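step: validate -> pass
step: tokenize input -> pass
step: predict -> running
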Amino acid sequence: MWHSAIIRGAVSQSTQDYYYRRHPATGTTSGALAVLMRHFGQQYDIAAVTPLDLARFRMWLLTEPINRRKPGHPLAPATCNTYLKGVRSFFRRLHRYGLIDLDPAEDLMLIPRPDPNPRTFTAAELRLLVEAAAANPIKLVAVRNTAMVWSLAETGCRAHGLTTMQMEHLDRERWTATVWEKSKGGRRARPVFWSSEIGRTALLRWLEIRPVPAATVFYAVCNTHQDRYLPHCVRCQQRWGQPLTPNGLGQIIRRLCKRAGIPSRGPHAIRHSVGKELIRSGMSLGAVSQILGHRDPALTVLYYGRLESDELGELHSRHIWIE
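step: predict -> pass
step: emit ->
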């Protein structure tokens, strides 16, 4: 198997999962190596892969209808690049460990992407999202989801940061918390803040009714009895108190979008909204960069400092100099 070429003990389990993941329930695989094996076949000799082979693999990624979420459609350029980065990392690692003589992925190019124009929520759409969360007939889930939406809007957390936020790192007196988020260069800690009364109230309501003590602030509940914990239920024991996954949080936000009747977006779109609104409010780019946890302020400018055409037109009309 291709993934057996990874030296076990030399890389962490998370790195192995990054290269090759298998869903325990469905048996489906994902990750860079899973897609690579799908193209070449599991018995293909790794040492025989050439730069031309990987160039053809790159074109196959871009053109073949292998999109699982949209059957019959090719992958988005961003998804292609995720797999290509994993392939480059894998072959670079094999070359460094002496398992192959040359690195065939050394010149493997990523797919050029258009200028980033992140999807965001308007203030009105965010209110509709909160209303959809609060309308859940199960009070416990309604309070939890409302608190999560407001916390995303207050803190600008990435999905991973919110789902792994620890109770021991939450300061309810100062309304701050420390989160560890994945970013370029590894996980980094940063402070987050709740400044509005509505955001603090939503979080406090959830903290007051959390039925099960857990390490993380937000956690999963049993899908069978979401309103209460049953000690004799195996699924309750497996889920109650367990951290939500970033993917699980994304599914919650997208379901709320559907119920609210607005275009489907994930939790990262709320983060984009926070960044753009902070910049529009006049906050310095340096401060916005620190609040969002960017390593490089240039990322803040690239992803959040861009204006739409109508916004540019409005600003341009305010600064007419030839009259």
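step: describe -> The first strand starts at residue 21 and ends at 22.
step: cleanup -> pass
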